[in-house]
Amino acid sequence: MKNTHKPNLASKFFCSVFGHNFFLSKKVTYHVKEFTCKSCQKQVTTDVNGNLIDLTPKFQEINSVLERIHNKRKIRLQEKQHVSSII
């Protein structure tokens, strides 16, 4: 996900004083999600334990692979259910 908004000093200061205001920016799987701060545009993701960690390029790649596998599995299960309902 590209940052289209550059955080300024005021938004960084706001987040350092009051904390980040995260919103859900991407749902990778049922358990893995990516969040972005509304003020400073900081991006985080959930780890194995559900904690928020910085969204580094390594985790971006991991999340994209997880999303691809998850979507393929969802499609395969939907097709399987569709075929079994016909029979």
Keywords:
alpha+beta, 46% helix, 87 residues, 2 helices, four-stranded antiparallel β-sheet, 21% strand, single chain, elongated
Describe the structure.
The chain has 87 residues and is α+β, with helices and mostly antiparallel strands. The chain has one domain (9-86). The protein has helices at residues 9-18, 57-86; strands spanning 22-27, 33-37, 43-46, 52-54. Strands 1-2-3-4 form a 4-stranded antiparallel sheet, with no helix packed on it. The radius of gyration is 17 Å and the shape is elongated. The model has no long low-confidence stretch (mean pLDDT 88).
Please estimate the helix content: 40-55%
Please outline the major beta sheet: 4 strands, antiparallel
This entry's quaternary arrangement is single chain
- Tell me the radius of gyration: 17 Å
Structural class: alpha+beta
Question: Low-confidence parts, pLDDT < 50 over ≥5 residues?
Answer: none
The beta-strand count equals 4
Distance between the termini: 42 Å
Written as H for each helix and E for each strand, in order along the chain, the element string is HEEEEH
Q: What does the average pLDDT come to?
A: 88
* Strand percent estimate: 15-25%
Whole-number tally of structural domains:
1
Strand order of the largest sheet: 1-2-3-4
**How large is the count of helical segments?**
2
